[in-house]
Amino acid sequence: MKKKFLLIIIAIIISFNLIAQKTDTITDKRDGKKYETITIGDQTWLAVNLTYKSNSGCWAYNNDQKNVPVYGYLYNWETAKTGCPAGTHLPSDVEWSELFDNIGGCKVAGVNIKSFAIWKENLLKTYKNTFNALPAGYRGVGGAFHFISEYCGFWSSTQSFTGSAWGYSIRLKKEDINKFSNEKVNGYSVRCIVNRKE
Q1: If you write DSSP's letter for every residue of 125-139 in order, what string do you get?
Q2: CA–CA separation, 136 and 91 (whole Å)
Q3: Contacts of 56 (CB under 8 A, 6+ apart)
Q4: pLDDT > 90: what percent of the chain?
Q5: pLDDT tens across 99-148, in order?
Q6: Do 121 and 56 contact (CB within 8 A), yes or no?
Q7: What's the whole-model pTM score?
Q8: Please, are residues 181 and 165 in contact by the beta-carbon 8 Å criterion?
Q9: 161 pLDDT above the threshold of 80
């Protein structure tokens, strides 16, 4: 009972924070794609996954271009680092942590950033979620694709070990955010963050 009450209080607090968020757009001059943005706390994020087609290191899920408009491309780490539009960048581990702090902490952030329209589960709807994390799946080291509609992983720009980098995953029917260190050749989603003004 206490846990349920605490979750309700957290959801109410988040709802007040998210109602005050600002939305805008940014255009990628490379391909003319227009992205909606959302401001959460002091950060402004793209509100959808990156869909820029790089010459290498990016894949449509199952190599099916029909998945791109909804889920974006999956990128290896080297491509992810340079793939964001001008004026934005791949977020660092610290920047991801700041986002999660602003939406209730890692224990509930997995619910609080999911897209209500896409994830096949019942979500708390006591606040307006505009980050819209999508279950885009991922591409493994061997080239196989896994877990679309059940899982998503986002790269950070922060290296963890030689050949590996930090990222964050969200899973079906899980409330938390899971931090991982995986090989840079894997394919994960990219969510860009707008550069802060000096």
Answers
A1: -SS---S-B---BEE
A2: 18
A3: 79
A4: 68
A5: 999 988 888 888 888 887 777 665 555 445 578 899 999 999 999 999 99
A6: no
A7: 0.85
A8: yes
A9: yes
- Strand-pair partners of 152: 137, 170
Question: Is 79 in contact with 156 (CB distance < 8 Å)?
Answer: no
181 phi/psi in degrees, rounded to 5: -120, 115
Distance between CA atoms of 116 and 92, rounded to whole angstroms?
A: 26
Sequence letter at residue 72: G
Domain boundaries, the chain: 2-194
Residues 88 and 33: their CA atoms lie apart, in Å, by 14
Task: Give the Cα separation of 85 and 32 in Å (integer).
Answer: 10
Question: Which has the closest alpha carbon to 150: 138, 140, 139, 135?
Answer: 135
Q: What number of CA atoms fall less than 13 Å from residue 3's CA on the CB side?
A: 2
Cα distance between residue 159 and residue 154, in whole Å: 13
Q: How far apart are CA 44 and CA 129, in angstroms?
A: 14
Q: What is the DSSP string of 83-102?
A: -SPTTEEPPPHHHHHHHHHH
- Which three-class secondary structure state does DSSP give residue 13? helix
Are the C-beta atoms of residues 182 and 165 closer than 8 Å to each other?
Answer: yes
User: How far apart are alpha carbons 170 and 149 in whole angstroms?
Assistant: 11
Is the dihedral angle over the CA atoms 62, 72, 96, 164 positive or is it negative? positive
Would you state the structure tokens that stand for residue 101, as one six-digit string?
């702090």
